[in-house]
């Protein structure tokens, strides 16, 4: 539940209306100019149908310098940001040779494996010399090396499941698995805020999709009862299979799903694996759910393990079935051997099998960092989403003008943040998403807090009154539909 | 007044073009924009209040007809064009008829019409144009007109 001050909601709608009106006006004049000057491209079909590039041209391009910033070092706690300049009001951006050292608050570097690590990197380089950078083959042809077998066993053991299968790309894992498991005559019930890869996979499977309100098990139950009673559309025969798809940590909200109350589940732990739970085993451990209750666990290695790729873990029969049918296993190149070695080494560090306690230290550090940062931000009066222990914390901005203001002012003070707006988030709810890492030290966090507080005052996003010592929240709350 | 907070529950509407209309504050913003545009017309043209309401009513007709009932599709490409044959009015609330939002949007032009005709004392020619505008808008919002294209106007190739 997001709590917005009413005036802010009104001004946000008004701002978007104004931006939309200006965009339409400029498009109108552009149409007149184009009709006046003959175009040299006669007889060609237009690239865009109708107005589908309106948002990109008139709204996104204006603040283009806040997105897609190139970096020239590894994404550790501090990194080198390449500066860009624009000569035509942000329509095109040119890279300069100047580089700025900034604090990194945007990378999914939860356990600090993104930069060179004393245990993982030598082993990855060793593997790069022994095996090649790419296996140059699919898993069924010649791409299964001893590393791949070891990796799958390692992942299955880490999660407490019987078997696992690993793919080269996290997005492709979701979009290739869902069509294999579900098809026509089946039902997928997914959370309204699920990631685009799940939406794509569900659409590609041909199954019927129903959406339930984010994190509301009561609404999920209502949808389930309704669907089981009605059956398939038009024929009203019972569904052949029903699956509920939820995520461990939602990347835009930072919230944990209410796992204990849902059943027959596909759990996408892209952000939560390695980052939450006492020993890093994800939301199941954090919420006290036995992994045998979750039927299919999916995750990626990009976030906490500093590598690339995705995995699916489940029972032996499920994984055997997937190895026969999944197109990502049969036709896509297998995961790169050095990347696989990086995952194996980082799992060993997290488990403590490398002989030191760095894994446990990292896990404790990220939990401590997240809780400290979140409580400090809330004390200052920002509206921060996300549950405790979650390393992802979105700070709500709302007004469209505050998005570039926040981003640019923070960059001036050498802090790099990621801001997210429509259409990745709902129109009203633009936010700046902060990702805390185990590589951030206490001084880094304190500096970040100072900068964010100063910029927050300048931009005006401290929507709640700042609390001096006690937990107080004044004002009426009106529930409107 | 500054401490009045609202709760925004996340919606299940997957269409990013229309789900902003389900959040709190939209209706108030709409009414406030109409009121302030009336004030602006009054101050710029220095006409009678009735003429100002007529001007607001007719420009509201043109703007809402263009964006609710004429333009089809969405202003971004991420949904891969599944709504390309539907106008905004046909997209809201996932096509369900007679929801609260639709009833509100049908009532607004009618109330504007009543205010405009009352403040101009029901004189012609304002009455004629106002009546035409409200007639077209209200008929366009009937449930029976869902996905109907009269004489093929605004249909796709």
From TrEMBL, chain A:
Its cofactor is pyridoxal 5'-phosphate. This is serine C-palmitoyltransferase. It catalyses: L-serine + hexadecanoyl-CoA + H(+) = 3-oxosphinganine + CO2 + CoA. InterPro entries: Aminotrans_II_pyridoxalP_BS, Aminotransferase_I/II_large, AON_synthase_class-II, PyrdxlP-dep_Trfase, PyrdxlP-dep_Trfase_major, PyrdxlP-dep_Trfase_small. One of its GO terms (biological process) is sphingosine biosynthetic process. Pfam families: Aminotran_1_2. It comes from the Eukaryota. Keywords: Acyltransferase, Lipid metabolism, Membrane, Pyridoxal phosphate, Sphingolipid metabolism, Transferase, Transmembrane, Transmembrane helix.
Automatic annotation (TrEMBL), chain B:
It is found in: Membrane. This is ORM1-like protein 3. Keywords: Membrane, Transmembrane, Transmembrane helix. It comes from Salvia splendens. It is a multi-pass membrane protein. GO terms for cellular component: endoplasmic reticulum membrane. It holds the Pfam family ORMDL. The keyword Mitochondrion does not apply. The keyword tRNA-binding does not apply. The chain crosses the membrane at residues 27-47, 126-143. It comes from the Eukaryota. InterPro entries: ORMDL (IPR007203).
């Amino acid at each position: 539940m997001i709590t917005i001050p009413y005036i802010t909601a009104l001004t946000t709608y008004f701002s978007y209306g104004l931006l939309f009106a200006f965009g339409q006006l400029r498009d109108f004049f552009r149409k007149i100019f184009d009709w006046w000057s003959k175009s040299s491209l006669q007889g060609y079909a237009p690239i865009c149908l109708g107005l589908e590039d309106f948002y990109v041209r008139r709204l996104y391009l204006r603040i283009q310098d806040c997105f897609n910033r190139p970096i020239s070092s590894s994404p550790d706690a501090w990194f080198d940001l390449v500066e860009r300049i624009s000569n035509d009001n942000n329509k095109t951006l040119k890279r300069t040779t100047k580089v700025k050292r900034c604090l990194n608050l945007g990378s999914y570097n939860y356990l600090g494996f993104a930069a060179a690590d004393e245990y993982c990197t030598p082993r990855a380089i060793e593997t790069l010399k022994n095996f090649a950078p790419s296996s140059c083959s699919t898993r069924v042809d010649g791409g299964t090396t001893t590393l791949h077998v070891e990796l799958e066993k390692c992942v299955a053991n880490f999660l407490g499941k019987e078997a696992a299968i690993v793919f080269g790309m996290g997005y492709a894992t979701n979009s290739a698995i869902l069509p294999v498991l579900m098809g026509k005559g089946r039902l997928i019930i997914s959370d309204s805020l699920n990631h685009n890869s799940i939406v794509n996979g569900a659409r590609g499977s041909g199954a019927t999709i129903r959406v339930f309100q984010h994190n509301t098990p009561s609404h999920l139950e209502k949808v389930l009862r309704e669907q089981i009673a009605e059956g398939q559309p038009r024929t009203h025969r019972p569904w052949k299979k029903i699956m509920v798809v939820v995520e461990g940590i939602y990347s835009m909200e930072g919230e944990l799903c209410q796992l204990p109350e849902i059943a027959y589940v596909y759990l996408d732990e892209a952000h939560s694996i390695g980052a939450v739970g006492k020993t890093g085993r994800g939301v199941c451990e954090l919420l006290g759910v036995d992994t045998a209750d979750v039927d299919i666990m999916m995750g990626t290695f990009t976030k906490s393990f500093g590598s690339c790729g995705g995995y699916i873990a489940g029972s032996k029969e499920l994984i055997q079935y997937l190895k026969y049918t999944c197109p990502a296993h049969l036709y896509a190149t297998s995961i790169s051997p050095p990347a696989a070695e990086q995952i194996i080494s980082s799992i060993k560090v997290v488990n403590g099998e490398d002989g030191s306690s760095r894994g446990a230290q990292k896990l404790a550090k990220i939990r401590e960092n997240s809780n400290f940062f979140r409580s400090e931000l809330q004390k200052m009066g920002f509206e921060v989403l996300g549950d405790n222990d979650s390393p992802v914390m979105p700070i709500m901005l709302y007004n469209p003008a505050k998005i570039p203001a926040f981003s640019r002012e923070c960059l001036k003070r050498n802090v790099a943040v990621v801001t997210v707006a429509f259409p990745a988030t709902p129109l009203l709810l633009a936010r700046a998403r902060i990702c805390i890492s185990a590589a951030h030290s206490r001084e880094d966090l304190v500096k970040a807090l100072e900068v964010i507080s100063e910029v927050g005052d300048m931009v005006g996003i401290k929507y709640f009154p700042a609390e001096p010592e006690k937990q107080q929240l004044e004002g009426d709350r009106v529930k409107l539909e | 007044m500054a401490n009045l907070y609202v709760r925004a529950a996340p919606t299940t509407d997957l269409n990013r073009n229309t789900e902003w209309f389900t959040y709190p504050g939209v209706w108030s913003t709409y009414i406030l924009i109409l009121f302030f545009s009336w004030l602006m017309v009054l101050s710029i043209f220095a006409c009678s209040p009735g003429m100002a309401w007529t001007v607001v009513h007719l420009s509201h007709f043109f703007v809402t007809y263009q964006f609710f009932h004429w333009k089809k599709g969405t202003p971004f490409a991420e949904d891969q064009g599944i709504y390309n044959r539907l106008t905004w009015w046909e997209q809201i609330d996932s096509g369900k008829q007679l929801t609260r939002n639709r009833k509100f949007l049908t009532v607004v032009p009618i109330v504007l019409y009543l205010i405009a005709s009352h403040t101009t004392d029901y004189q012609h020619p304002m009455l004629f144009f106002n009546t035409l505008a409200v007639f077209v808008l209200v008929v366009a919002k009937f449930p029976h007109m869902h996905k109907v294209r009269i004489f093929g106007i605004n249909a796709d190739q």
